Amino acid sequence: MAKLSELKRYLDYEFSTGVYTGDDYKTFQNKYINYLRSTCKENGWTLVRALRNHYCFSAFIKDDGNNYVYVSIFDVRYNRNDWYNRVLIRTAKNEKDYTGGSNRYYSLPVLQFAIHQLLKGA
Length: 122
Fold this sequence. Notes:
Blueprint: H1 4-8, H2 23-43, E1 46-52, E2 57-62, E3 68-73, H3 82-85, E4 87-92, E5 104-106, H4 111-121
Antiparallel strand pairs: 1-2, 2-3, 3-4, 4-5
């Protein structure tokens, strides 16, 4: 089970860069997605889909009422700690809705609460 403390180790970390995704980012991405998966499990949600990209990723989370939230982090090579301080979330109609509701930004420590609020109000 991934923990927030494992991700905090990457604060101020300078990720590799290049044409191919670096192993350091792949490890970080796995930990982050596992953290989201753990958060979902704790709350009775499902991590429906995780879309792994070059140096960023997005995911869809749904509750048992079929309400969806889209989660995304920006390229970790720029604005170094945005993956922690500025996580994008918004409501979505399904796991393929990339336009959804209004963009909202939260820090990782309060992300669980923010997702809960969006799912509850969706």
